[in-house]
Amino acid sequence: MSAPHDQHFLTDPDAIRKIAHFSDIKDQTVLEIGPGKGALTKELLERGAKVIAIEIDPKMIEILGSRFADEIDSGRLNLLNEDAVRCDYPDFDIVIANLPYSASSKITFRLLEHGFKEAVLMYQKEFALRMMALPGTSNCGRLSVMVQTYAKVMPLLNLPPEAFSPPPAVDSMVVRITMKEELTYPVDDPEFYSILVRELFSHRRKTLKKSLKSSRSVIGEKRYERIVSMLPDEMLKKRAEELSLKDFSNISNIATK
């Protein structure tokens, strides 16, 4: 098991209380990733949630096990000494977590693949803003497109470094992520869609035509030929950051029909 990703503990009691109250969690199974010493865990349990906490640090697991012995015995808290980037996620309804910033992207993608009713997650503010960046703007990236394809994101709370111990060097933001019941722009092959978005943004300074050519071994020769032959020249001259969600969906669906 690898070392802990980050060690910035949220200590502001008002912020902890607000985060735990953003969702209706009574009698719900809540997944918490990176509980640390259990400040948020305590609030979630007090609000009537059943909590599954994934914590990579064995020292924190020991602290949590001692602090919440009664809740563990009663089955209201399940501690998993695992790496949330790699482990299988158990079934849950809602995820509420102060994510380790160095693993935010990987964990977010994994949560989207797993699916959930709702997520209240804390990120580095810059990361959260990129997640919400509109397709077609310069701040848009793979993260923006993948999250907004499958979910809606709403900012909830800004937090300064002083809300943590030790204080990080960045501001933080809590957001609510709600999975879309029906996609605005349907995706025929989600696996290929993910590959396509990743590849196009890995060559984001190139035009779509050149980007696809650089990625033809990854997306497949037949799919490459199909996309290039069916897209208008005007579209092929655009860059990934200039494409809309509808564009990404259309390109992917053209390739997989």
TrEMBL record:
CDD domains: AdoMet_MTases
Any one GO CC term of the record: cytoplasm
InterPro entries xref list: KsgA/Erm, rRNA_Ade_diMease-like_C, rRNA_Ade_Mease_Trfase_CS, rRNA_Ade_methylase_Trfase_N, rRNA_adenine_dimethylase, SAM-dependent_MTases_sf
Keywords in alphabetical order: Cytoplasm, Methyltransferase, RNA-binding, rRNA processing, S-adenosyl-L-methionine, Transferase
GO MF annotations, alphabetized: RNA binding; rRNA (adenine-N6,N6-)-dimethyltransferase activity
Keyword field contains DNA repair: no
Top-level taxon: Archaea
Localization per Swiss-Prot or TrEMBL: Cytoplasm
Enzyme Commission number(s): 2.1.1.-
Binding site for S-adenosyl-L-methionine: H8, L10, G34, E55, D83, N98
PROSITE patterns attached to this UniProt entry: RRNA_A_DIMETH (PS01131), SAM_RNA_A_N6_MT (PS51689)
Signal peptide range in chain numbering: none
Domain Ribosomal RNA adenine methylase transferase N-terminal: 15-181
Enzymatic class: transferase
UniProt family annotation: Belongs to the class I-like SAM-binding methyltransferase superfamily. rRNA adenine N(6)-methyltransferase family. RsmA subfamily.
Primary role: Specifically dimethylates two adjacent adenosines in the loop of a conserved hairpin near the 3'-end of 16S rRNA in the 30S particle. May play a critical role in biogenesis of 30S subunits.
PANTHER family found in the cross-reference section: DIMETHYLADENOSINE TRANSFERASE (PTHR11727), DIMETHYLADENOSINE TRANSFERASE-RELATED (PTHR11727:SF7)
Stated name of the protein: Probable ribosomal RNA small subunit methyltransferase A
